[in-house]
Design brief:
Number of helices: 15
Structural class: mainly alpha
Helix content: 55-70%
Distance between the termini: 44 Å
Strand content: under 5%
Length: 252
């Protein structure tokens, strides 16, 4: 999927329904000059929300109006109060608070949104048959915004990828957030994610671990053979159990 991403996106874009929705968005978004007009057109608004992975909130227009009206220039703005960065990203793209009626003249509100919509659709399509693929694609899309372990922990999907790749148990997520961040940064060089080869290696490890945990991998999986030959411990050993317990106790 990674090696043929462009072709996969082209295939998704050629779907007649998606073609119509994308064409409608591009043709009509440029005529929107206010938050009211944006929210009143359900097709435009729903399309934009899905592009940002917020389709589950497309009914909450009063909530999203507040996100848009306050923008992101103020550190106390509504969108910045959430650990989920999607709201701030939405407010940044559709930044009526800053740019007013010319907001939709920028490429960020037009083709960039269409590209994001197609990528979201592809991830959902692949995720319907293998959730691990969806998570890996999502991680590779978001990786440029990861600057610290806290960015990972603030996003449930990103955190799941890292937890899985490191072989961490479910109870790790209940540990103190600072201790989690420290633990992750001791084991992963965040800067390596900006190196395509290092990122690919990490995602291959995640995929192998995910398949193993979900019993979808085969005994001949090359990635699993690499992990096995490296003597990586798949089950949680006593040292790891002790480390997790210390994290849950705040290091005491």
């Amino acid at each position: 999927m990674t090696n043929n991403l462009d072709r996969s996106l082209t295939t998704v874009a050629s779907d007649p329904t998606l073609e119509r929705e994308s064409a409608y968005y591009l043709e009509n978004m440029e005529n929107v000059t206010s938050i009211d007009e944006f929210l009143e057109d359900d097709r435009l608004f729903d399309y934009a929300m899905k592009a940002f992975g917020l389709e589950d909130m497309d009914y909450a227009k009063t909530f999203m109006r507040k996100v848009l009206e306050e923008g992101i220039d103020d550190d106390d703005s509504f969108a910045k109060q959430f650990t989920d960065g999607k709201y701030a990203a939405f407010a940044e793209t559709f930044n009526f608070a800053r740019y007013g009626e010319v907001t939709t003249t920028f490429e960020a509100t037009r083709q960039d949104v269409v590209d994001a919509y197609l990528r979201q659709t592809l991830e959902e399509k692949e995720g319907s048959s293998n959730e691990g693929v969806r998570l890996a694609l999502y991680f590779s899309r978001q990786v440029s915004d990861i600057e610290s372990a806290y960015d990972i922990l603030a996003d449930q999907a990103l955190a799941e990828v890292v937890y899985t790749a490191l072989g961490l148990p479910d109870e790790f997520a209940s540990a103190d957030i600072d201790k989690q961040a420290e633990y992750i940064e001791e084991r992963i060089n965040i800067e390596d994610f900006q190196d395509p080869e290092a990122l690919q290696t990490f995602l291959e490890r995640f995929s192998a671990m995910y398949d193993l945990q979900n019993e979808t991998a085969t005994a001949t999986s090359p990635a699993l053979q690499v992990i096995t030959s490296a003597n990586t411990t798949i089950t949680m050993d006593e040292d790891l159990r002790a480390s997790i317990q210390n994290l849950k106790l705040g290091g005491v």
